[in-house]
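INFO  loader      accepted 1 record
INFO  loader      residues=58
INFO  predictor   begin
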Amino acid sequence: MSQPAKAGDPVTNIDVRTPAGSILCFPHGMHPLHCIHSSVAITQGVKYIIRSDVLFEV
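INFO  predictor   done
INFO  writer      dumping tokens
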């Protein structure tokens, strides 16, 4: 099983810009596509952040 990315790992920086009103989703935790992500300061308008967790028995 792969491990989540962490600070200090070799990374490729990708600049993703979404149009106003769109969304960008990231998998978290132990998901194999988990990635380190960040954003720049919001200088105008409003930024909404929603986090959702889906839990299930395995």
